[in-house]
Amino acid sequence: MNINQKQEPDYSSAKITHVGFIDPYAMEGIIILQSDDKKEFHMRAFSGEVARHIKSFVEGRRDALPTIYNMIEEICEGNEMLLVKVKVYESGSVLRANLYFTGKKDIVLRNYRASDAVALAAFYNIPILVRNTLLKEKTENLS
């Protein structure tokens, strides 16, 4: 059992294993998150623009930052805080995420778009925790 599971029994730590697009015009993104026990969560129905940012962050490119990420970075630096993890979960029929900041004061921002939270996690290279109910056994491609 990893440390995140011990502290967060309803969540598993996951890594981004794939970033791509659902459509040929790159308008809708998809990412695959995989837990340590190889279960997967396929996250889709978010903008292709966010998918492109996630892809560049995963590849280590952080030169073309969207303004909102710069704003979050400045707020964190000014208040001596760090984003330390994000937790992805379902809220009704949509995906949401909580963002956890620590520093002089601990802050949790709740119920934000999961795709933006995952993009920030990729940018800062921090843990992504996925609610266990979202993770499924990996299915083999039959083609």
Automatic annotation (TrEMBL):
<dbReference type="InterPro" id="IPR003729">
    <property type="entry name" value="Bi_nuclease_dom"/>
</dbReference>
<dbReference type="Pfam" id="PF02577">
    <property type="entry name" value="BFN_dom"/>
</dbReference>
<protein>
    <recommendedName>
        <fullName>BFN domain-containing protein</fullName>
    </recommendedName>
</protein>
<dbReference type="InterPro" id="IPR036104">
    <property type="entry name" value="BFN_sf"/>
</dbReference>
<feature type="domain" description="BFN">
    <location>
        <begin position="11"/>
        <end position="142"/>
    </location>
</feature>
<dbReference type="GO" id="GO:0004518">
    <property type="term" value="F:nuclease activity"/>
</dbReference>
